[in-house]
Design a protein that fits this description.
With about 200 residues, the chain is of the alpha/beta class. Helices cover about 45% and strands about 10% of the residues. A 5-stranded parallel sheet has the order 2-1-3-5-4, sandwiched between helices. Helix 1 crosses helix 2. The radius of gyration is 18 Å and the shape is globular. It starts with a helix and ends in an 8-residue tail after the last helix.
């Protein structure tokens, strides 16, 4: 088995890797496309992402109907842990209309990130799985499911993504707002991508 570094070195040298694709067993067109996309994502992450965090970062908070009751907790935790500009674009309470689902909020997150309207998106739903799966269907979004502060630190250091999905009903009990503060400290205050 060849490592991703092998493919990257061959492509950066302008040559095709001499291996068959694991998907179709003919040529390496799919492997090459996958590797080129990973190189582009890594170079985007390393070139500008950490620099935007040093300045006045724009963070979008997008809540859907089942997690909208936690909107105030998220915004307060962000104001306590970072000096970023917070764009509260989702639902702020369950009575608000129109009622948004994780399908709507994941599309909104992708639009905000790909148009450059924000640098980072904080979203989620009851378990975090719906928003995560929805937002990962769009290009330019690197999202992780963050349950506890260690997840946030590892996501920031290894993945260096631009979006997090939080479980805002499942396991959200006493001190849930404190957990959010610790998550944002570990995800947003440390320089990303040191372990990647």
């Amino acid at each position: 088995a060849y490592s991703a570094g092998y493919f990257q070195s061959k492509i950066l040298q302008g040559r095709s890797p001499d291996v068959d694709c694991v998907l179709c067993n003919r040529g390496c067109r799919y492997v090459r496309r996958w590797t080129v996309n990973r190189i582009v994502l890594r170079s985007r992450r390393q070139s500008g992402y950490g620099e935007r965090r040093k300045g006045n970062m724009k963070i979008a908070v997008i809540n859907e109907v089942s997690a909208s009751i936690r909107n105030e907790d998220i915004v307060n935790a962000l104001h306590k842990t970072t000096n970023a500009e917070v764009l509260n674009v989702g639902m702020k309470n369950p009575e608000q209309t129109p009622s948004l689902t994780y399908i709507h909020t994941s599309y909104m997150a992708a639009v905000l990130l790909n148009t450059g309207s924000c640098d980072f998106v904080i979203g989620g739903c009851g378990t975090g799985q719906g928003f995560l799966n929805g937002v990962l269907q769009f290009p330019g979004v690197v999202c992780g499911l963050i349950v506890e502060p260690l997840d946030a630190w590892l996501f920031s250091q290894i993945n260096g993504g631009n979006c997090v999905s939080l479980p805002l009903n499942k396991g959200y009990g006493w001190a849930g707002s404190i957990n959010l503060e610790y998550i944002f400290e570990n995800c947003l205050q440390t320089r990303p991508g040191r372990l990647s």
